[in-house]
Design a protein that fits this description.
Blueprint: E1 2-3, E2 6-10, H1 16-25, H2 44-47, E3 59-65, E4 70-77, E5 95-100, H3 109-123, E6 128-133, H4 138-146, E7 150-155, E8 158-164
Antiparallel strand pairs: 1-2, 2-3, 3-4, 4-5, 6-8, 7-8
């Protein structure tokens, strides 16, 4: 898939270092707010999203620019009752995570990543996805709603959303 000088490819275990960067980028900070310390990535509630990427059930895509440099990612990972993610709904519904480098936002790349993930999930027989998003992150909420995500609950300061894969 090539559009506007970027490409989408499947994420592999070799992408784990970039996925750590994207996990950090996914932490929503309001305009003028203070950024999180990168140390937060060492916390168990964050590590579970990326540690050991490429395990059974993991699915993800990487957006790269014209030079092949990664600029964004989207991932699906399964969690269970004993190890819930922020957007956990059930053991059968994988949780979506997505982030783009700041300079790559607002260019439609998120839409292309979501489309690729929905196609890949459907091919695997996955029928529903969940996610967690800060309600103040209006651009992300708008994108998720376009893909059919609907609010199903609140976890801390974030809303949990679920979409059916059709």
């Amino acid at each position: 898939m090539t559009m506007n000088s970027y490409n989408i490819r499947v994420a592999t275990a070799q992408d784990e270092p970039f996925l750590w960067d994207m996990l950090y980028e996914s932490l929503y900070v309001p305009d003028g707010g203070e950024s999180f310390s990168r140390d937060i990535l060492n916390e168990p509630f964050m590590k579970k999203y990326v540690a050991g990427w490429g395990r059974e059930g993991d699915l993800g895509y990487i957006a790269t620019n014209g030079e092949g440099k990664p600029i964004g990612s989207i991932t699906l990972r399964y969690f269970d009752e004993a190890n819930k993610g922020f957007g956990y709904v059930s053991d059968e519904i994988p949780e979506l995570g997505m982030a783009l480098l700041p300079e790559s936002r607002g260019q439609g790349i998120g839409t292309v990543l979501m489309t690729a993930l929905f196609q890949g999930a459907k091919a695997r027989g996955i029928s529903r996805l969940s996610l967690s998003v800060a309600p103040e992150n209006t651009a992300a909420v708008k994108l998720y709603r376009r893909f059919g995500f609907q609010e199903v609950g609140v976890f801390g300061t974030s809303i949990t959303m679920v979409a059916d894969i059709v």
